[in-house]
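2024-03-11 09:14:02 INFO worker-7 job=invfold-0412 stage=load source=structure_tokens
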């Protein structure tokens, strides 16, 4: 990374961090409570945080109009699931990072309707490639007409498959070490598996981003994390918890996911192959550079 990239990254991150923390202080406990008690993400913010993020949006470069259009289509067609979409501040940060490092080949684990894929594809060079994996064709297909309209379909390789299998196939296909950047944003249960496989796929000096690693701040909850030691809670169970998660019944599982994310954060910070920062962007965004 050159010094410009570092400077841009540091500026964006510190502004978002200050904003997030102000929002947290302002909303304090209510912010987290809103998140677990209400059905959709649009309800999770306190007034203080909303005002602050409004300011951040106003004085940050606007996203590409086709990305905004896709967000509107998602709200209309996939209303119930629209909170899955990566939020604008995070998408634009990731996209700026891809542009700043001059990424040519980017991988996303968890496409949903392709908001981030579209946004990144727009800044990739003509011969760049956005590889994006999801096992739910009906969600991905919601975004395809907008990819087409934006003129980036030729840059997007959409893989409809279970993510672990798809990553194994990329490795078997000889694509090890060929990705400049990876964004992991699928089922939380498999993050450690995705992290290990993506470490193979990303090139030396490349970046891995992982979403939700602060789990709305709950990783710091003393009931979950006592002096860095994970407290005892029932482990995640894919069959049971994925149904709850898809219904947005966060109350029943937020604690188990927070513990899981805390364990993941402990794993990554001990990984001698990387440097890592957790940014208080969105629900927590980990940025890892492969040494
Ligand atoms: C939070 S959404 C991704 C949002 C997307 N990155 C964006 O920019 O809007 C998570 C996605 O991961 C997908 N997913 C979950 N588990 C998966 C798995 N085992 N294999 C493939 N995709 C999976 C879901 O279908 C869902 O679309």
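2024-03-11 09:14:09 INFO worker-7 stage=emit residues=291
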């Amino acid at each position: 990374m050159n010094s410009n990239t570092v400077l841009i990254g540091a500026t964006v991150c510190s502004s978002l961090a200050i904003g997030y923390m102000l929002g947290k202080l302002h909303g304090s406990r209510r912010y987290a409570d809103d998140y677990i008690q209400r059905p959709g993400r649009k309800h999770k913010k306190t007034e203080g945080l909303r005002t602050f993020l409004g300011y951040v949006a106003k004085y940050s470069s606007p996203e590409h109009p086709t990305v905004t259009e896709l967000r509107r289509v998602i709200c209309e067609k996939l209303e119930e699931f629209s909170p899955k979409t990566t939020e604008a501040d995070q998408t634009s940060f990731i996209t700026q990072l891809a542009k700043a490092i001059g990424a040519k080949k980017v991988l996303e684990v968890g496409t949903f309707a392709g908001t981030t894929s579209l946004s990144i594809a727009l800044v990739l060079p003509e011969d760049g490639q956005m590889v994006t994996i999801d096992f739910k064709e009906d969600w991905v297909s919601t975004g395809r007409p907008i990819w087409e309209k934006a003129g980036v379909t030729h840059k997007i390789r959409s893989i409809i498959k279970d993510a672990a299998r798809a990553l194994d196939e990329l490795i078997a296909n000889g694509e090890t070490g060929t990705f400049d950047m990876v964004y992991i944003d699928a089922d939380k249960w498999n993050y450690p598996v995705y992290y290990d496989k993506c470490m193979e796929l990303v090139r030396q000096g490349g970046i891995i981003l992982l979403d939700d690693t602060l789990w709305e701040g709950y990783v710091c909850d003393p009931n979950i994390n006592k002096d860095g030691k994970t407290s005892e809670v029932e482990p995640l169970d894919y069959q049971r918890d994925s149904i709850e998660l898809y219904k947005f019944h966060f109350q029943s599982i937020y604690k188990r996911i927070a513990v899981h994310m805390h364990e993941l954060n402990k794993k990554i910070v001990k990984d001698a192959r990387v440097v890592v920062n957790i940014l208080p962007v969105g629900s927590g965004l980990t940025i890892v550079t492969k040494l």
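2024-03-11 09:14:09 INFO worker-7 stage=report msg="The chain has ten helices and nine strands."
2024-03-11 09:14:10 INFO worker-7 job finished
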